[in-house]
Amino acid sequence: MLNLNPSHWLFAFALGLLLELCLGEPKRFHPLVGFGWLASWLERRFNLSEKLHATTCRNIPENRHPRMFLSGIKQSRWIPAFAGMTKLWEALNILRGALAWLLLISASLAAFALLKNFTGWWADALALWFALGARSLFEHVRAIARPLSTGDLITARLALSRIVSRNCTELDETGIAKAGLESTLENGADAIFASLFFFALFGGYGVLLHRLANTLDAMWGYKTVRLFHFGRIAARADDVLNFIPARLTALSYVLLGHSRSGFSCWQNQAPLWDSPNAGPVMASGAGALQVSLGGEATYHGEIHSRPQLGCGPVPTAHDLPRGIVLVQKTLALWIALLLGGALWLL
Fold first, then answer.
1. Residue 226: helix, strand or coil by DSSP?
2. pTM for this predicted structure
3. Membrane spanning segments where (predicted)?
4. Angle in degrees, CA 263, 265, 267, rounded to 5
């Protein structure tokens, strides 16, 4: 709202929200598709790991830890001089990742500024529409819940694989329900409430910055051989941008669910999670729903033992609609607060 007068912000907010809730994400010509293609193209040209892995360590699986990759470099007969330059290589690849991040973000914001010069607050409304993912999230989770409730695990796994990066091929009903509920709670924070937070503060520029940074984290922020160093800045930037929105989301889940268990799980379990933002969101959400999340999950071929989040029984197919309702109630609360604040400033 800092770069818009209250009436223009209100018009842009109402229109963007209406487009999102009525139409959902654009089915064709979504700007993020083009942005993702450009990010992949730039990563292939800037990322040193891509080149070195291809030339020196072709037999090292993509999911192996980067330290194993570097040990492979030291043993390579092709580039022995590189063996003593590991730290320099790491720093250089981090810097190249940061430069690629800055190029993509700054170019996108500059293009948005040009559009805004011609369209005014309409550009802010479009940015909000493109950034929000509420309807898409609800549709994807329902696509998991429906077959899961009838015992159709194959269809449920396929639907789940569209919204998570973990291996879904051998998940049972509990594993599918757990993964779907975790994704519902976490994506509620990332795809809905963080976008609303940045739109409230900075209009279209804010929501665009957050959505693009979140997209780059989703593409580059993995601890794999190829991306461990190159994607570090993308991952850290997303952590910083989501720090406040994640905790506001966690607070909302606590207020709108079982408050005592939600707050207790947030305080006691969130610090044990490896993500500084997903921990509070999922712990508070699991406690608010009184279900147990976390545990073992397979990502990129590696089994991860994760701490337990929440309390109560493990989730079932019937808990997925409960997760949607919690996110919907939180969305209604945020909309009411933002509209009330805008009307008060008029």
1. coil
2. 0.87
3. 94-114, 191-209, 326-345
4. 70
